[in-house]
Amino acid sequence: MREEIIKEIEARKLIAILRGVPCDKLLPTAEALYRGGIRLLEITYGREEDKQVADNIKGLVKCFEGRMLIGAGTVIKPEQVELTAKAGGCFIISPDTNKEVIESTRNRGLVSIPGALTPTEIAAAHNFGADFVKLFPISCFDADYVKAVKAPLGGIKLLAVGGINENNMSYYLKAGICGFGIGSNMADLKLIEKDDWQGITVLAKKYKAVIDRG
Asked: pLDDT tens, 66-106?
């Protein structure tokens, strides 16, 4: 199962990040993203009680079974990994490199995607057992930085997160990035507030089109 999820992330390349979306709008937002071609969804911890986030993940896992893979983001402690696993989430994304979180993720059979930026952090995350390493915040660096990092660390799968938009994705892909996490640039909170689900779908299609073009 874990290997299948890794392959799906490599193939789809787009993880939509839902942060700050009200509970009652999570389902229609996810449906709008799905219609736009998104198949990987990250629900973040931090703004609500951890149990509420886990309940949100559980609900989405049930609704999208067989259609979309649901995981957790902003995971900074092993307890959140446990909650996510019990909720049926299948991948764990963090803003940092935390050995305990990575080990807990692997022990529960989930896909591990910790955050890192420097070569030392990236290598440490990989050595701790990460399946992918999230370069974050990538908006502070250009594609040349990715190329420089990939030169000695080419065997490590890197995702780019933070400031990614439809105009800069192709540069990072050419530099060796294998996927992206995209938040409000795709799951636009202003559109969500207005229940503009078609607008969310249109944005999702734009990002998917960049991936399809390679």
From this structure: 999 999 999 999 999 999 999 999 999 999 999 999 999 99
* Polymer length in residues for the chain: 214
Q: Catalytic pick from 65, 134, 147, 174?
A: 134
What CATH number does residue 47 fall under? 3.20.20.70
The model's pTM is: 0.97
**Looking at the 3D structure of the chain, how many domains does it have?**
1
Residue 108 falls inside a structural domain: yes
Based on the residue annotation, tell me whether 77 is a catalytic residue of this protein. Answer: no
State the residue range of the domain holding 46.
2-209
Is 3 catalytic? The answer is no
